[in-house]
Amino acid sequence: MPDAHDVLFRTLADPTRRALFERLCREGEKTVGALTERAGVSQPVVSKHLGILKQAGLVRYRHEGRQTHYSAQLGALAPLVDWTSEMAGFWQSRFNALEDLLKRMDQ
Amino acid sequence: MPDAHDVLFRTLADPTRRALFERLCREGEKTVGALTERAGVSQPVVSKHLGILKQAGLVRYRHEGRQTHYSAQLGALAPLVDWTSEMAGFWQSRFNALEDLLKRMDQ
DNA sequence: AATTCACATAGCTATAGAGCTATGCATAGA
DNA sequence: TCTATGCATAGCTCTATAGCTATGTGAATT
Q: In A78-100, which positions are buried (b, 16+ CB within 10 angstroms) versus exposed (e)?
C-alpha cells in the first residue's frame, strides 16, 4: 500500500489533473461544467480526474441541485511540504557536518 | 513541452525513483552498486532511474575509475517548493525560510 | 409524466513507462 | 594482453492509466 507521499506525487504528476487542482486553488469553487470548459478534455475525463483528486484528499465537493461544486483542500499538501523540508534538512545537515569537519581540520 | 513542475512531479511520482533520491539525500553520495543493493530492482533499472533523475536535475554524478558516484542536487526542488507555496498561500511564511535556504545553496 | 440538463459510471483503446535479460564499453587488476 | 568488474544501453514485455464514446442517474423544467 502506497504512503501519503506516493498518492500525492502520483496524483499531481498528471498535467491535466494538476491544472484542475491549480484552477481550484486560484479561482476557488467551480462546477464540473465550468472546469470542463477550459480543461481541454471531455467532461467524463474531468469527472474522473476530480474523483482521483478527491481520493487523494486534495479536493472536496458540495452538491447543489444537479450541479457539483468542487474546491481545493489545501491541507492535503502538508505531507508534500514535510517531505520537501525533510529532504532539504538532510542535505543541510550534511553540509553543516562537512563545514564542521573542515573547521576542525583547519586548526 | 512540459514545464519544470511537470518534470519534477513526474520524476518523483515513481516510488523506486523517489526512494533512490531520498537515499541520496539522507546518506549522501553513493555508487550505482551501493544503490542497487537495497533498491529492490536490478542494476540496469537503477541506472535508468538515475538517468531520469539526472535529466530532471535532481542528481549529479562523478566518475571515479569504473565507478559512478551519484549525489542529490537539492536546488532542483525549488520549483516544487515554489509551486506548493503558490498553491498554499497562507503557508507562505512557513516556507520563506526554506526557499531562501535553497536559493543560497543552489549552485 | 416527459424532457432536459449536470454529472457520474462503464467499457474500450492506445500509449507511456517500469521492469526484466542480454550485451556493450570502459577501467582495474592479473 | 587477457579477464573481471562496474555501469550504461538495447530491446523486449506487461501493466497502469489517460483519453474517448455511450449510457446511467438524479434533479430541474415544462
A: ebbbebbbebbebbeebeeeeee
